[in-house]
Design goal:
Low-confidence stretches: none
Oligomer: single chain
CATH topology: Ferritin
Distance between the termini: 49 Å
Radius of gyration: 16 Å
Mean pLDDT: 97
CATH class: Mainly Alpha
Number of strands: 0
Order of helices and strands: HHHHHHH
Helix content: over 70%
Largest sheet: none
Shape: elongated
Number of domains: 1
Structural class: mainly alpha
CATH architecture: Up-down Bundle
């Protein structure tokens, strides 16, 4: 299999641009008194989050690459929309939770984020099983984040 470097680099750049955008709202707020006063006891230490998210965004980039390079021309707009919506929802959660400090709104938003990941898995599974499997850790991590968000919100 020949690697399509341009698509691979674009997949990495787009994915990590989303990661960077989300971190602009998250990083400045994880050490603050508000977050430390509300985080549940089962919350992993703060240093775990950037490690996990970097791994996840790399897997997301790979998923995007495999889906894009194995898709037909008519499938590409659907892929672009599915990943684009997911990326927007990913950033919005950080804005709602960390920047605006709205855990209840964040909880309902994370349900949409989780559903968007699940839908991408279904969409990409028809194009590339590898692409779909690469998103399973993301789905699981967001489910765990949803649990933490639920504990905080309710």
């Amino acid at each position: 299999m020949k690697i399509k470097w341009k698509v691979f680099v674009v997949s990495l750049v787009v994915s990590f641009a989303v990661a960077f955008a989300g971190s602009l709202f998250t990083s400045p707020n994880t050490g603050g008194s508000w977050y430390n006063s509300i985080k549940p006891a089962i919350t992993p230490p703060n240093f775990v989050f950037p490690i996990v998210w970097n791994i996840l965004f790399f897997l997301i980039a790979l998923s995007l690459y495999f889906a894009w390079t194995n898709s037909k021309k008519k499938e590409k707009p659907k892929l672009a929309w599915a990943y684009g919506i997911n990326f927007l929802l990913n950033i919005l959660w950080s804005v709602f939770f960390f920047q605006l400090k709205l855990p209840l709104l964040s909880f309902f938003e994370i349900i949409l984020l989780w559903a968007s990941i699940f839908s991408i898995i279904l969409i990409t599974g028809k194009i590339s099983k590898t692409s779909a499997y690469l998103l399973v850790p993301y789905l699981i991590w967001v489910a765990f984040a949803g649990l933490l968000n639920f504990i905080i919100a309710f």
